[in-house]
Amino acid sequence: MSSNDTNPVHELHPEECWEFLRTHEFGRLGYHLADEVHIVPINYAVKDDRLYFLTAEGSKLLGVTMNADVAFEVDEVVDEHATSVVVRGRARHLEGSAAWIIDQLPLRPWVDTEKYIVVEIRADEVTGRRFDLHRPWLHARVDTA
């Protein structure tokens, strides 16, 4: 058995990363606002190799307007495996006819608030890793049900 077979960290190919992103709808957006870095949860959709989300006037929109460089992350833990995908890219507010892309996507606000501004993230880089977890403490838990 090669040492690679026992490595608990597995790099994902970019297409695997995009497929993972397409099968999820909730992640975290990291953006700059003035001289601070913010991270917020958002729901999103993927079309081709771009991410889209809806927002309203506020700090997210101001942040991506002032500095388009963003990072976006989606994580998942299932049984003994964890997956993490990170997109680094540039965000832009879509206006006019460009904003109609949202009608083609399964994207609706999760919270009943008015969000009508469409933001697109064009990826410069997408990376992902899958981890084989070793969490022996989980086996020591007592089921109280």
UniProtKB/TrEMBL annotation:
<dbReference type="InterPro" id="IPR012349">
    <property type="entry name" value="Split_barrel_FMN-bd"/>
</dbReference>
<dbReference type="InterPro" id="IPR024747">
    <property type="entry name" value="Pyridox_Oxase-rel"/>
</dbReference>
<dbReference type="Pfam" id="PF12900">
    <property type="entry name" value="Pyridox_ox_2"/>
</dbReference>
<protein>
    <submittedName>
        <fullName>Nitroimidazol reductase NimA-like FMN-containing flavoprotein (Pyridoxamine 5'-phosphate oxidase superfamily)</fullName>
    </submittedName>
</protein>
